[in-house]
Amino acid sequence: MPKLECRFFRTAAGSEPVRDWLRGLPAHVRREIGSDVQTVQWRWPVGKPLVDGLEAGLFEVRTQVKGDAYRVLFCTVGGTMVLLHGFHKKTRRTPKSALDLARDRKGDLEKRR
Hints:
The chain has a single domain (5-112), classed as RelE-like (YaeB-like fold). By secondary structure, it is of the alpha+beta class. Helices cover 36% and strands 33% of the residues.
């Protein structure tokens, strides 16, 4: 039994942005990201290099595929890992827009609870 359940953030309109993003990636990249997310589920809490804490309650799963960096930003709610945002990382710093979006989605989750 995994230590964390996993679910995709769902917007008020019912879309799942991280699931949609994953579907647009090549199959071999999806497999690597999925494997890393599953490792986090089973071994939580996990530290670097696989998971990094970004700020209070916000974390990233760090996946490398053939020199390319992918990130899935998530938070935990009870015993559930909620995947908030995913992106292909092209610079050393996490883009402010990605952090802002994850923060907004996390806030949205908290309001709906």
